[in-house]
Amino acid sequence: MNQPIPATALQLRSLIKASGELELSLALIDVPRPAANEVLVRIEAAPLNPSDIGLLFGPADMSGATAGGNAERPVVTAPIPEAAMKAVAGRLGVSMPVGNEGAGVVVAAGSSEAAQALVGKTVAVLGGAMYSQYRALPLEQCLLLPEGATPADGASSFVNPLTALGMVETMRREGHHALVHTAAASNLGQMLNRICLKDGIALVNIVRKPEQAELLRSIGAVHVCNTESPSFLQELTEALVATGATIAFDATGGGRLAGQILGCMEQALNRTAKEYSRYGSTTHKQVYLYGRLDTRPTEFVRNFGMAWGMGGWLLFPFLQKIGPAAAEALKQRIAAELKTTFASRYAQSVSLTGMLQLDSIAAYNKRATGEKFLVTPN
Amino acid sequence: MNQPIPATALQLRSLIKASGELELSLALIDVPRPAANEVLVRIEAAPLNPSDIGLLFGPADMSGATAGGNAERPVVTAPIPEAAMKAVAGRLGVSMPVGNEGAGVVVAAGSSEAAQALVGKTVAVLGGAMYSQYRALPLEQCLLLPEGATPADGASSFVNPLTALGMVETMRREGHHALVHTAAASNLGQMLNRICLKDGIALVNIVRKPEQAELLRSIGAVHVCNTESPSFLQELTEALVATGATIAFDATGGGRLAGQILGCMEQALNRTAKEYSRYGSTTHKQVYLYGRLDTRPTEFVRNFGMAWGMGGWLLFPFLQKIGPAAAEALKQRIAAELKTTFASRYAQSVSLTGMLQLDSIAAYNKRATGEKFLVTPN
Fold first, then answer.
1. pTM of the full predicted structure?
2. Which residues, numbered 194 to 223 in chain A, qualify as contacts with chain B under a Cβ-Cβ cut-off of 8 Å?
3. From the CA atom positions of chain B, what is the Rg in Å?
4. Is the ipTM of this complex over 0.95?
5. Interface contact flag, A302 B292, Cβ < 8 Å
6. d(CA A366, nearest CA chain B) in Å
7. Averaged in consecutive runs of 10 residues, what is the pLDDT profile of chain B (378 residues)?
């Protein structure tokens, strides 16, 4: 806390060049001075979420990455397939900072009383560029952590907790009563499972490995279906009959899973149908694709009637839609249950220079369940 | 009008047997007596819409159809692929009447004054089982046709006109300002084009043949894109830039077209984007799949950001959603513009027995543009 604030500090940058190359490096930037209603946070911990990795690497082929620079200022370059260049036209030549969220200690504050009150406190922060040693942020992007919580405890206070709560809130607002979630053994999935257990909401967890199913059952999950099971569709249908779930959040996005969920929902609804309708069940069935773990095209056979929807789901537009008061209520719940419902676990920590080592890139780019990394910039 | 009302009359039936066979036949049924608020209509004309053909044949393989029965009461049978039997489990063994809509002359009426007032009048009717010689229907399912309109003029007063108006209404209610329509040279598509021209709404018409493009241009369509053009995606993007359309109604349902429309909408929106967002444009892009002309699976690459939706769209739930007053307003517009905006054309007429001839089945099952059939049961 009493360390002097340096004039300059490191910030990780991701740059895509028009030549078709990704370049990751550390930039030396001026440490900002907080405005009246801002605080300066020394970032101590920031998670490597899938969405961060998406911005960090873009569509680059990281298996072709090469290391350069020196030990203190490493540089990593990797080729970008030509077909993918069109999708990143908007960021060509722009050196972008990365890292949606993090946590740290307030080392300086602007003149406002509210800002001054945070000096010396540990806060979670949201707002991009968190793979930096220092960040100045407006108060509304900070969440004061409860007494005794470390930056590592609070590093993932926003993206996963708000996403999981946002799914439950979306379910309620759109008139559904139970949920389906894929890639359900993820940090986010385990969190959603804890929320649903606590709130008494039936949840169907879809995973792709037996050990992920075991993990979820060991933390109290009731309905767990494994896509690799030969009777997956039947098991999923039974779980949907048992829960009545008619909304799903799919982290994979590609392949046939989203359509299979809609098809099984329709089968489950038709179990109780009283008469034949060639247009299928009249109950609306919805799948939101919120991730891209499966990069293949999305494909479905239309065997689920006409009352269905598929769409993208993203945290920030959702928060805008519900408005600041509702969003603040979600944040207060997160702070209150930070070490229980919203606890995150990390397999490893890496420094900013550590992030630019080829072996750690290979490790965190796997985005494997239970293998989440925490960045410690200072 | 002064013909005597028979005691029994013919009604076309479609039956799927558990043995995996479709059977089409004519049943002799009692002519119903209208209740107080009903009228008895001698059906003179009923269109063969794609949705009727869907119920009529189900998933049967009509290339394997065989003719039986006799000249007055023909019977057609056709095999159903085993894989398709699950989808029709709900209608097995149920002899179903067919025909969503039609028009005819009121030959008897119930005791109510409103019903009596219709005796001798020509009305359009909605309510299923229209491939019948006589139908009793409640008044609210009848639309009095304007003086001089024939049953053939009014036979298609509901499904296509309400669907086309429903698309425009959905566009308005969901905050969009221009439309995209596929299979746009269809009877429905030409009608939608007339509505949009009349109402000053920009419409992007997607077709798959140069002669369909010509046809639409000849009736005033401004934006016509042909999927077979080597630069289809580019032409579609330009039309979307010109119109600002962010909602589409897709009659094909299968293949890649729906996803391509979303992708081109995104490209069009990004033309005016001010800064790079890895989540794509924040403008919601929507495609409704309302038909199944393309029976392949639906497939898309997710190259249109996160603000998108795909879903089923069906006329009857839409009418329920807007409520009876709004639906009645649409019907009054249809009656007023029956011979202009909402005019339908038919290539051929067939009797009920004619519907059960293998050569006419082969003809109307093509569902080809400009080849619509009109059934004349009496």
1. 0.87
2. none
3. 22
4. no
5. yes
6. 20
7. 84 96 97 96 96 93 96 96 88 95 97 96 96 96 93 95 97 98 94 98 97 97 98 98 98 97 96 77 96 94 96 94 93 93 92 96 85 93
